[in-house]
Amino acid sequence: MSDTSSNTSLLYRIVNDKEMRSVAIQVITIALLFAFLFYVVRNAMVNLEAIGKGYSFKFLSEASNYDINQTLIEYNSRSPHYRAAMVGILNTLLVAVTGVVIATALGFVLGVLRLSTNWLINRTVYVYIEYVRNVPVLLHILLMHGIVVNTLPVPKNAMNFADGTFFLTNRGFYTPKPLFEPAMWAVFITLFIAVCFAWWFRRYAQKVQDQTGKAYPVFWIGLAAMVLGPTLVYFLAGSPMTFEYAALKGFNFKGGLVIRPEFIALTLALSLYTAAFIAEIVRAGIQAISHGQTEAAYALGIKPGRTMSLVVIPQALRVIIPPLSSQYLNITKNSSLAIAIGYMDIVATIGGISLNQTGREMECMTIVLALYLSFSLMISGFMNWYNKKMKLVER
Amino acid sequence: MSTEQTYAPGTHPDLPPPSNTIGFVGWVRGNLLNSTTNIVITVLTVYLLYLIIPPLMSWVFLDAVLQADSRDDCRAIAKEAGHPMGACWAFIGKRFELFVYGFYPAAERWRVNIAFFIMLAAFYPVLFDHAPYRKQGLWFALLAPVILVWLLIGGFGLEPVDTDKFGGFLLTLVIGVTGIVVSLPIGIALALGRQSDMPALRIICIGFIEFIRGVPLITLLFVASTMLNYFLPPGTTFDLLLRVLIMVTLFSSAYLAEVVRGGLQAIPKGQTEAADAMGLKYWQSMRLIILPQALKISIPGIVNSFIGLYKDSTLVIIIGLFDPLGMGRASLADTKWQGLSTEIYVFVAIFFFISCFAMARYSLYLEKKLHTGH
After folding, report:
1. pTM score
2. CATH of domain B95-104+161-370
3. Which residues 92-151 of A are in CB contact (within 8 Å) with B?
4. ipTM score here?
């Protein structure tokens, strides 16, 4: 018996042997990929050298020379570019977090209303959802911005709430700005301790209930600790917080805390848009739970409210969470459309003005892409963890 | 009481149901007012609708001005008729051609019209399997892209038209249709690559998909508009529309890949094993057994991605292309029509609503048609 495999050529084996073929395909793919990357990077180096630019992030510490109208941290036109990028990051996160909270709340309400037996509300919500989902989000943002800027009054005729405490104008929403004295720290520390206590108490109550069946009013005790504790300390420390009120000076309001119209328009548009998607997800999730579950819970004598919170919702959440997390990612990514209405997020600061001023397209875009990638990875990591926690434990 | 009739037990004819449980009244009582909560919800909804619908209707229809030469004209006409100024649709009417064709040369616009009908004719046999002459129609659909590109760009006997002249709904359709048609095969390939046994292919596909899905489309468009030229050999210039098309297609294909992967994962392993046992090769089993089933399951997701891509085509205004939205904003620079942005937004919104809603309906039709279960 002669060994046929040793004298067949390599080419023959690549064509006919499955494993050899798979290795060959992979080697070729990797080679092509590296060749492509090499080609692209080489081109970039040649091109950059031709205009004398190079690739360096030194510009980040140079002065930015532009102003940003909404900043969560201290910033002025002499601050360096990296500071501008941080302002942008915080602004993006602010919109994303606010949007996620509003969209989730609204989406759950709409999703439940969509299942209502009341024909009128059911149809109204249906029309709303279809309208919102079939129109581009950019259009929603521009429309909302137009509404906020065009229909709200100018500062002189500001809408006034609670007798000169809150003002709503087309330049923004003015609220009193809290000013903290050093003793305020005590209040914050108390709040932190209260939150820790509430968390510990929940676990303790669960343990007691598992062992003895005795149920504590966990929610109310936790809430009391978180409200009463800090309030008590606040007054003991002699009310260490005052408010700075906004007041009309000339053509605009001065002082106070201002929520810019761009932020209002962007957050509202993004949350209204995403809420429609979340509503459909919630509806599908609740519909996925068989009616037998509810009936079984009733047969065991569980009240409707607790049936909802202990039986239906935990099961529906398993269906809801994975698509919900991609909606959260979408809000974060869609917040980049802020640039269309002049809200200063990452894309508008480091990827917009900084890019145009320094001419460093490569570096700026690298930063922007890396930031968004890390946001996305963080959100999906968190949602995966939460999903795993909620997952059905199968035996 | 002579009319009173007596019946033997059990022979009384059925009485009609109480009048308040049938007809309109019965329906309202049963569906809108059947519990305290529902009464409250109904009243609140009616009030909300009362707040929204009458003003909206009078803005869109009753107080609207259809014929005018400028915004002031619109206002004057409304004043003369004795109602507040509603929508100034005259503006849309005057700029309608710009909204449809963008800056496409007026003398060549017939080409766009023909291209539009060729596109419809090519889609019809692909989308509906009861189409007459379907077989020939499918061959025509294969040929159609070449004809369309030739008609729109020109050359070979037609006046060449630069792609920066494309705008309005023409641009939306070009981006949307190209993206949809090209991204589907790429998406399927990526999904297969992600499921592949070969680690190198799998890692490359996962990396690509996750990168694209992790960043917003607008940043990719910025990359296309600001730095793609750096990666090309020195001296090459690369059409902006083409760059945008590539980015939009890659973006959409990554999302499609995930949708198709969901479909692939839903196919029981027994199907692959059965195909292997029958002696089918990889591509045969994919083409004949796995993909038909997987794609069928993923239709709703695929159509959703298409709708998303179509809607995302509006983002190109941020890098300076003029889709209907961009066209409208550009026309606002004309002092005659300043301040009419709402009209533009509503008009464009209606256009997108109609096309996206039609796509969603088609997906429902397809789901129903392909539903072979019980």
Report:
1. 0.86
2. 1.10.3720.10
3. 113, 116-121, 124, 130-131, 133-139, 142-143, 146, 150
4. 0.87
